[in-house]
C-alpha cells in the first residue's frame, strides 16, 4: 500500500515538473530622442527590472542610440546593456518610414533599399551598446516584407513586434528566414498604465493565458511598452510627424509631460505586473536572444519525398511530414534534390502559358534541373519555370513536380497548384497600416501582395526548451 502511494506521489510530482513552460517576452520600443526625460524613463525601467531579476528586450532606434551617446548618457546605455538590445529602425517616424519607402519598390529593389537606409542604424546601435542587435521591429505599423532578407544580411535573426500583416495561430512562426513573434492575438496584452496603481484585470488576463497555453503544450506571451509612455502623455512622434508632416529638426516640439507623481505611479504599475507574473511557477521571462535558442532551427533534415509530394500536391501550405514541420519552400527544395537550405519566395507572381495537358518526361526533367540551378544560385524560388518557350507558374510547377514523383511515367501530367497560405495574411490594404504617422489613406496593398508571395517560407515555429 505504501509502495503504491509513493509511486502515485512520484508520478504526480513528475507530471507537475513536466508542465510545459510559458515564456514571457517583455520588450520596450526605445525611440523618443526628442524628450530627454525619456532617457531617464529607460534608465528607471531597466534598473527596476534588473532589481527584479528579469531580463527584457530594449529595441533601440538608431537616432536614439546616437542621442544617448551625444548627451553623455552612459548610465542609460549601461543599464540597458544588462538586457537584450534590439533594433527599431534608424529614424522611426521621420519620413519616409519603412512602409513609405518600400511601397513603390519590388521585392528585390526593396531589400536593397531597406539595407541602404537601415544598415547605418544597426551599426550605430551595435557601436553604442557594444553588442549586435538581436531583433528588429518596425516603427508603428510601417511594415514591409523586403526587410526580412536585408535583416538576415545584417545579422538580425528575430522579428519582434506586433501587427496584423501576417500571423500564425497567435504564436511564433518562421517567415522570410526570421523567427517572428508577431500578430500574437490573445497572447499579446499588458497592464495598462492609466488604470490606477495596479491593473488587476491584466493579472487575470495573464493567468488565463498561462493556463490556456499550458494546456496547449506551452507557448509565448508578448508584452510591450515604450519608455516614453511613463513620462509623457502623448507620443513624441505624433506631436511632430503626424499624417506625413516632416518638420525640420529646429521645429520639433516636445510632447506633453506627465507629473513626477504620475510617472512614479506608472513605474509602479509595471513593477507590480512583473511581480505578479513572477508568481507563476511555470512562467519564464525570456529575451529575443533567448528565443533564438528556444526555437533553434528552421531547417529540417531531409524526409521522404513521397510524403512531401503528397502534401505539396494537395495544397501549397506548411505542414508536418514525418514529424518535421516544413514550409512550402522547404518541400520544394527537397523535391528539387537540393540540400535543406533557406530560400526566399518568388519576387513576383508568374503565369502559366503552357497549354497542353502533359509534358514529355525529358522536357520536364530539363525544367526541373533549371529550376534547381536557379534556386541554388539565387537562394530564392523562381517566379516561373520554363517548359521550352512556355512557362508554368511556381504553384503549378510545384504541384506538377509533386505529381511526377507520385505517378512517374513517360509524360508528366500538368497540375494546378492550390495556394493554402493566403489566409494567414491581411487583405485590407489600409487597416494594418493605419498609423498616425503615415499619410491619410496610405495603402499597403503592394506590400501585402509581396508579403503573400513570401508565404512559401511561412511555417509554425516548434517550441523547445531554453538552454
CATH architecture of the largest domain, please?
Alpha-Beta Barrel
Q: Give me the number of helical elements.
A: 16
Distance between the termini: 40 Å
Beta content comes to: 5-15%
Unreliable parts: 4-16
> Tell me, what's the shape?
globular
Per CATH, the class of the largest domain reads Alpha Beta
- SSE class: alpha/beta
Main beta sheet: strand number and arrangement? 5 strands, parallel
- Average pLDDT works out at 94
* CATH topology label of the largest domain: TIM Barrel
* Number of individual domains: 2
Number of strands: 16
Radius of gyration, in angstroms, nearest whole number? 25 Å
What's the CATH H-level homologous superfamily of the largest domain?
Glycoside hydrolase/deacetylase
User: What is the helix fraction of residues, given as a range?
Assistant: 25-40%
What does this structure look like?
The protein is an alpha/beta fold and 467 residues long. It has 2 domains: 20-295, TIM Barrel (Alpha-Beta Barrel), CATH 3.20.20.370; 305-420, no CATH class. Helices cover 40% and strands 13% of the residues. The chain is built from 16 helices and 16 strands. The strands form 5 sheets. Strands 1, 2, 3, 8 and 9 form a 5-stranded parallel beta sheet that branches. Strands 4-5-7-6-16 form a 5-stranded mixed beta sheet. α12 crosses α15. The longest helix is centred in the first third of the chain and has 23 residues, at 107-129. The radius of gyration is 25 Å and the shape is globular.
Amino acid at each position: 500500500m505504501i509502495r503504491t502511494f509513493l509511486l502515485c506521489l512520484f508520478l504526480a510530482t513528475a507530471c507537475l515538473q513536466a508542465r510545459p513552460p510559458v515564456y514571457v517576452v517583455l520588450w520596450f520600443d526605445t525611440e523618443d530622442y526628442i524628450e530627454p526625460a525619456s532617457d531617464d524613463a529607460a534608465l528607471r525601467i531597466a534598473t527596476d527590472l534588473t532589481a527584479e531579476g528579469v531580463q527584457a528586450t530594449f529595441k533601440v532606434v538608431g537616432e536614439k542610440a546616437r542621442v544617448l551617446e551625444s548627451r553623455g548618457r552612459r548610465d542609460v546605455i549601461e543599464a540597458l546593456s544588462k538586457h537584450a538590445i534590439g533594433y527599431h529602425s534608424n529614424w522611426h517616424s521621420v519620413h519616409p518610414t519603412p512602409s513609405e519607402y518600400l511601397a513603390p519598390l519590388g521585392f528585390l529593389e526593396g531589400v536593397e533599399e531597406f539595407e541602404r537606409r537601415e544598415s547605418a542604424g544597426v551599426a550605430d546601435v551595435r557601436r553604442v551598446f557594444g553588442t549586435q542587435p538581436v531583433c528588429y521591429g518596425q516603427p508603428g505599423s510601417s511594415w514591409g516584407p523586403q526587410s526580412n532578407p536585408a535583416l538576415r544580411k545584417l545579422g538580425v535573426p528575430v522579428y519582434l513586434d506586433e501587427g496584423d500583416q501576417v500571423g500564425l495561430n497567435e504564436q511564433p512562426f518562421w517567415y522570410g528566414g526570421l523567427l517572428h513573434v508577431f500578430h500574437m492575438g490573445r497572447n499579446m496584452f499588458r497592464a495598462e498604465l492609466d488604470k490606477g496603481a495596479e491593473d488587476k484585470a491584466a493579472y487575470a488576463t495573464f493567468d488565463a493565458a498561462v493556463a490556456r497555453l499550458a494546456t496547449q503544450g506551452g507557448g509565448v506571451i508578448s508584452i510591450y511598452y515604450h519608455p516614453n509612455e511613463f513620462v509623457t502623455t502623448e507620443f513624441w512622434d505624433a506631436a511632430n510627424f503626424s499624417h506625413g508632416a516632416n518638420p525640420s529638426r529646429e521645429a520639433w516640439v516636445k510632447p506633453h509631460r506627465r507629473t513626477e507623481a504620475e510617472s512614479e505611479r506608472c513605474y509602479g504599475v509595471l513593477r507590480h505586473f512583473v511581480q505578479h507574473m513572477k508568481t507563476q511557477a511555470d512562467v519564464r521571462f525570456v529575451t529575443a536572444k533567448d528565443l533564438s535558442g528556444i526555437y533553434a532551427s528552421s531547417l529540417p533534415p531531409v524526409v521522404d519525398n513521397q510524403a512531401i509530394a503528397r502534401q505539396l500536391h494537395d495544397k501549397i501550405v506548411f505542414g508536418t511530414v514525418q514529424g518535421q514541420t516544413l514550409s512550402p519552400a522547404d518541400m520544394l527544395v527537397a523535391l528539387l534534390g537540393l540540400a535543406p537550405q533557406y530560400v526566399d519566395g518568388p519576387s513576383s507572381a508568374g503565369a502559366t502559358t503552357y497549354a497542353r495537358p502533359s509534358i514529355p518526361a525529358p522536357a520536364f526533367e530539363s525544367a526541373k534541373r533549371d529550376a534547381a540551378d536557379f534556386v541554388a544560385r539565387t537562394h530564392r524560388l523562381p517566379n516561373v519555370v520554363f517548359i521550352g518557350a512556355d512557362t508554368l507558374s511556381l504553384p503549378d510547377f510545384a504541384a506538377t513536380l509533386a505529381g511526377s514523383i507520385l505517378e512517374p511515367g513517360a509524360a508528366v501530367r500538368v497540375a494546378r497548384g492550390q495556394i493554402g497560405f493566403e489566409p494567414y495574411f491581411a487583405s485590407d490594404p489600409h487597416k494594418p497600416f493605419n498609423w498616425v504617422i503615415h499619410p491619410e489613406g496610405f495603402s499597403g496593398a503592394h506590400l501585402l501582395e509581396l508579403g503573400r508571395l513570401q508565404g512559401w517560407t511561412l511555417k509554425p515555429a516548434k517550441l523547445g526548451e531554453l538552454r
